[in-house]
Write a structure and sequence with these properties.
The complex is a heterodimer of chains A (162) and B (311). Chain A has 162 residues and is α+β, with helices and mostly antiparallel strands. Chain A is 38% helix and 17% strand. In chain B, helix 10 crosses helix 11. Classes of the chains: A alpha+beta (162), B alpha+beta (311).
């Protein structure tokens, strides 16, 4: 099996590794680095494996690990700014039951929050339409993302008032 | 003597990794088109071009395709561009979301601008390329249908030189494309359609699935009379196809409800459908007529809106 040495910035840390060329990025993140990126369908339908690559959310199951070479990859563990707010909002809105889909939802939500807008319900539903949750339902998740993003947007306002 | 340990790298074993993994390929990442073409001519049909990979990796994953070599063109910097002089030129590595964002601020092709947000979801568009979708032409994809409707020109390069081919010749019967294994689709040209009424209509079973059926329309009308009309039907089990005979009855006429109904009936007669799982051919044919007529109606309304605004 052909392998290749890759170097990437993973969750803020530079790391290098030799990977088989047919390994998916999702598999590398989960099995190689022990991160909590979930792998479910492996076909881009469920969204559990979403990660940020150069700041843009993408499915890591439909990407080769070698393609991450030279890129900045952020998984749920690397979302230091957004994660506490999202965790709190998800917990308060009962948006998590088994938690399998959560890494994907939270990465997608964080990418939306980073745009700095106050997203409407329609925008949130558009953002998470490729993510499947089979137990808690979507209303709580949409509400949680809205809460987290509104808190987010409230911060600059408060700073401006001071 | 020992056997090489099978690699389950492509899918974690506990999710049903298979011994005979379909993802057994070698990989090359050329940095120039010439280098990529050399590799392609060496490997021929055993190699595949990897751009966004949102179609290709899926086909490999499901075992439908078993390429021996992947040629990753993401490192070829000269292929990632959007350019607009007299036409809108989109390079092979341009992501669908990049073009969508570009068209929001530079309205150059309203049909394309309407169609891009309908494709899958933002994350798949963030990775998937425009040209990848055009070249792979998965059944039900919007972009090949848009290229057919807009008469887009596809630029293809091989080691012997360049050629330009219109989408109507590029897409052949049974969903095949006129491109050899040693060729690269380097960029695609879309004409501006600022003066035309455009619309796309589709019906899909889930938000993320390919449309079961869809219709794209570009219509030019003058003084309320329809001067030219291009209509494409596509969908799962329906190879993207231009409906040319049915639309000839509409040319030179003033759009009325009766004309729209007649158009729907003619489309149902002309459209060529295969059956796809869960989409019976009769149903697809019926829906094709209805969607075609609905898209025509909406495009005419949009065209009139444009003329009144420009006056």
């Amino acid at each position: 099996m052909q392998t290749r040495a890759i170097k990437m910035e993973l969750n803020g840390k530079a790391c290098s590794r030799s990977v088989p060329v047919n390994q998916s990025l999702a598999s590398l993140l989960r099995e190689g680095f022990g991160l909590s990126t979930s792998i479910s369908c492996g076909e881009g339908n469920c969204g559990t494996c979403s990660v940020l690559m150069d700041g843009r959310p993408m499915r890591s199951c439909l990407m080769l690990a070698v393609q991450a070479s030279g890129r900045v990859v952020t998984t749920i563990e690397g979302l230091t700014d957004e994660l506490p707010r999202l965790q709190k909002a998800f917990s308060e809105n009962h948006a998590i039951q088994c938690g399998f889909c959560a890494p994907g939802f939270i990465v997608a939500a964080a990418a939306l929050m980073r745009t700095g807008s106050r997203p409407s319900e329609a925008e949130i539903r558009e953002t998470i339409k490729g993510h499947l949750c089979r137990c808690s339902g979507y209303s709580g998740i949409v509400q949680a993302i809205q809460d987290a993003a509104t808190q987010d947007a409230a911060v600059p306002d408060a700073a401006a008032q001071r | 003597m020992g056997f090489e340990k099978p690699t389950f790298a492509w899918r974690a074993p506990r999710f049903g990794g298979r011994l005979n993994s379909p993802g057994m390929f070698t990989y090359a990442a050329p940095t120039s088109i010439e280098e990529a073409l050399d590799i392609l001519s060496e490997w021929g049909s055993r190699a595949r071009i990897l751009a966004g990979g949102q179609t290709l990796l899926l086909l490999i994953r499901s075992g439908t395709l078993r390429p021996e070599h992947l040629v990753d063109i993401n490192g070829v910097g000269s292929l990632d561009f959007i350019d607009f002089n007299d036409t809108l030129r989109v390079g092979a590595c341009c992501r669908q979301l990049d073009l969508e964002v570009f068209l929001r601020t530079n309205p150059r092709n309203s049909l394309l601008a309407q169609a891009l947000p309908l494709i899958a979801d933002q994350e798949l568009r963030n990775r998937g390329t425009v040209c990848g979708s055009l070249a792979a032409a998965p059944s039900g994809a919007e972009l090949p249908a848009i290229a057919l409707t807009c008469n887009a020109n596809l630029h293809i390069r091989n080691r012997r030189g360049d050629r330009e081919i219109c989408a109507t010749s590029f897409y052949r019967e049974y969903g095949t494309v006129a491109m050899a294994p040693d060729e690269i689709l380097t960029h695609v040209n879309f004409e501006y359609d600022d003066q035309s009424g455009t619309a796309i209509e589709e019906i899909r079973y889930t938000q993320l699935s390919f449309p079961a059926c869809g219709a794209a329309v570009v219509v030019d009308s003058q003084d309320g009379v329809c001067r030219s009309l291009r209509l494409t039907i596509f969908g799962q089990g329906i190879p993207a196809q231009r409906i040319d005979e049915a639309v000839s009855s509409v040319k030179g006429e003033k759009p009325s409800n009766q004309l729209v109904d007649e158009l729907a009936t003619r489309i149902r007669k002309e459209v060529c459908v295969d059956s796809a799982p869960g989409i019976p051919a009769d149903y697809a044919r019926h829906v094709a007529g209805s969607l075609g007529a609905r898209a025509f109606k909406r495009a005419v309304a949009q065209g009139e809106d444009l003329t009144t605004r420009s006056q």
